[in-house]
Amino acid sequence: MEFRKLLAKYQTKKKPARVEITTTMEPDVYIEPGAVIEVLGSEVTVSPNHSSGYALRFQRFIRFRDDKSPEQATTAREITTIARGGTRERNRRRSQPGAKR
Length: 101
Known about the structure:
Layout: H1 3-7, E1 11-12, E2 30-31, E3 37-40, E4 43-46, E5 54-57, E6 60-64, H2 76-83, H3 88-95
Antiparallel strand pairs: 1-2, 3-6, 4-5
């Protein structure tokens, strides 16, 4: 089945409340949290054009992750940590209440 059709039930034209857009680039559509997808890319690069400050170069869809909920997906903060040479696990520990910073 085509990728767009699989995500159609999560699509919305209205920006979800938790989404921050800090650049002049606006997406054509928004996807509500619900589906977790695995993507692969050649590298994470600094990008002034994206709200996160990073872009995934040569990204490609790998698979849907039916075994994960949206809350278990990698966050923008975790991606930033990874892009700066950190690890996802270290970032998760730091974000837990009472953790040392």
